[in-house]
Design goal:
The protein is of the alpha/beta class and 319 residues long. The chain has three domains: 177 residues, Rossmann fold (3-Layer(aba) Sandwich), CATH 3.40.50.720; 39 residues, no CATH class; 90 residues, Orthogonal Bundle (N-(1-d-carboxylethyl)-l-norvaline Dehydrogenase, domain 2). It contains twelve helices and eight strands. The chain is globular, with a radius of gyration of 23 Å. 29% of the residues are buried.
Length: 319
Amino acid sequence: MISGERVAVIGAGTMGHGMGFALARKGYQVTLMSRKPSSLELARRAITDTADLFLDHDLMSKDEREETLSRIEMTTCLEKALDGATYVFEAVPEDLDTKREVLRQAERFMLEDGLLASTTSAFVPSLLTGSLTRPERFVVAHFWNPPSVVALVEVVPAPITSGETVKEICELLQRIEKFPVVLKKEIPGFIGNRLQLAVLREALWIVESGAAGPAEVDQVMKMTLGQRWARLGPIEAADLGGLDVFLAISDYLGKTFQPAFDPPEILQEKVSQGKLGAKTGEGFYLWSDDRARKVKRDRDQALLQYACGSRRQSGAEKP
């Protein structure tokens, strides 16, 4: 049990109530705030459903379920929500002016040495700090939906955010069994959403071009890249496949995109330096023969498990 530390979550939508559950499950006293009583009622039902799901999958006991639910308080009063809060998370809709105003008001009522975080999924933190008097204590902590389940959280400091603030938010996230990934500098959309929208943009262009329908595009993703990327990120997969191969593919395919693009300079530099990935011992990562074999074995094992499961679901395997 964590004592003496209260957490306020402003916004009771999907992200807000999911974060509240994740924090309360690990012992924090959480106050979930929304100006609409109806939103709080929906949040209460959703949190109860999530607790039941965790119970059904043996991820918490009945006692833990009851203790988790008892740690979550709800209110329509911002000042009450922030009273004594060590950590404050803003989780209101993605409107820049709304977020700025909520953050400004939050800073007025929260503990002076408390930590203020936004869960924005797109805005760079420097866009949100203008009205703050203690911007060094502000950071973006981008949870992924559903935050009760997904472990990764993107941590994005503003240029003025202190190193102590980044350290503190990462320690909090680790205490609730989240995996913080800290960006070296702020960029719109951070890492995940830039990757997600880049894939979606091309997926929709394929459909728009008439080359394939939505179902075909989704099936290709689910049965190939989706499975591979669950074990290997795109850069690690390129290292394994050979950066010279990916450079050649990029050089050709890049001309067919709209708009057309040249291969990234960083990829060209690696190839010109002879750093081609696993086959030369270095690419974007360092590779020993043992590491390459292990990564490939783990990848292949995961793909085989998926393939066998897909065959069972489709009835392809005989009894």
